[in-house]
Write a structure and sequence with these properties.
Elements lengths: L1 E8 L7 H15 L4 E9 L3 H9 L20 H17 L29 E7 L14 E2 L3 H4 L4 E4 L4 E4 L2 H11 L13 E5 L3 H13 L2 E4 L19 H5 L5 E5 L17 E3 L12 E3 L4 E3 L2 H16 L10 H17 L1
Helix pairs in contact: 1-3, 1-8, 1-9, 3-9, 5-6, 5-8
Length: about 350
């Protein structure tokens, strides 16, 4: 199976998704899956039709594209070849996760139920969507969804198999996976249920609210540039500020109103886990660090989790059991970033 992969949205030049795609494809290739990454692109656009047209028109590799400071222009075959080569090098060198990346053991993106096999073509196009494109598809779009992302206006992954479009929203499932990875117990109920302290109401925020509610957590919507819709599937799991004061469950805080690629400082409110919703791709920072109340984790955690879940849900669900864990993938991402900067 040959794969063409793109990231679409604006801004887009900071994205590390191409690096994760290369790492995951090489991992699955080594595990025995017949997958070949033949083309990549960064599509800076406010028009979703432009991204979908890229998938429809298989024009072959082109050197036209956006330059990333870390890995170059992924549309350039030489840059893509270099990225795959570095991924193979990291695969050979990094066999286990950094202990700090697996505080409670690694998180795998397999599910108890059997995953259905999907129809495959020899050449497929996969697209990861970023702001502001996530809300532009609806249930009337003629796209087959693996979840409720169309109803929630929160699509961030697309797959074109040559005949049909398929989609998923993995921001929310990724956030829940990160929370569990750092010790959140969604079996707890009432005042002990995990609490999501959420700023924002866009596609990513809606996806996270829906997944958090479905997992059994409760949500404190703190407002933001756009208010969280009170008609979504999360409505019965919302609590007000006066209820938050007496809540004793673990708290996760995330602000989706920060500028992509420009992570901000941690807010002063108390939380067991502060997840920075963005990341700075120009430098390798500390991805887990203590705060006065808990831990602060870099936006790469959310990126890696939602990316792995995209493979498990949409891109290659039949190979979900072969995927690397969240902690191992984070360790490899840090390693390849360091290697690319040292080159």
């Amino acid at each position: 199976m040959q794969i063409r992969y793109a990231v679409a949205g604006s801004p887009i030049q900071h994205s590390l998704s191409p690096v994760l795609t290369a790492l995951t494809a090489v991992h699955l290739e080594k595990a025995g899956l017949e997958v070949e990454l033949i083309e990549m692109n960064l599509i800076d656009s406010l028009d979703l039709n432009e991204a979908m047209a890229w998938a429809w028109v298989n024009s072959g590799q082109s050197k036209n594209g956006i330059q990333n400071r870390l890995y170059g222009n992924p549309a350039d075959p030489d840059s893509l070849s270099k990225l795959i080569s570095f991924s193979r090098q990291v695969m050979a060198e990094v066999k286990a996760p950094d202990p700090s990346h697996v505080p409670h053991g690694d998180t795998l993106f397999t599910q108890a139920e059997d995953r259905k096999k999907i129809r495959r073509s020899d050449n497929e196009s996969w697209i990861s969507l970023t702001s502001p494109l996530k809300h532009l598809l609806s249930t009337r779009s003629g796209i087959h969804s693996t979840d409720q992302s169309l109803e929630n206006g929160a699509v961030n992954q697309l797959r074109w198999d040559g005949k049909n479009w398929f989609c998923a929203g993995t921001d929310g499932s990724g956030l829940v996976a990160v929370a569990r990875h750092f010790g959140f117990d969604f079996e707890l109920t009432g005042m002990e249920a995990p609490l999501l302290c959420l700023v924002g109401g866009g596609g990513s925020a809606r996806s996270c609210a829906a997944a958090w509610a479905a997992a059994g957590g409760v949500i404190w919507s703190k407002g933001g540039r756009r208010k969280l819709d009170n008609r979504g599937p999360w409505v019965n799991r919302l609590i007000e500020g006066d209820q938050v004061v007496g809540h004793i469950g673990m708290r996760l805080s995330i602000d989706f109103d920060i500028e992509p690629g420009m992570p901000n400082s941690v807010e002063s409110s108390s939380a067991d886990l502060h997840v920075i919703s963005s990341y700075n791709s120009h430098k390798v920072g500390v991805v887990v660090q203590p705060s006065e109340t808990g831990l602060v984790i870099d936006g790469r955690w959310l990126l890696v989790a939602q990316h792995l879940d995209a493979w498990a849900q949409l891109f290659s669900p039949e190979a979900a059991h072969m995927l690397p864990g969240l902690g191992l993938s984070m360790t490899r991402l840090m390693a390849i970033e360091s290697a690319l900067r040292a080159d």
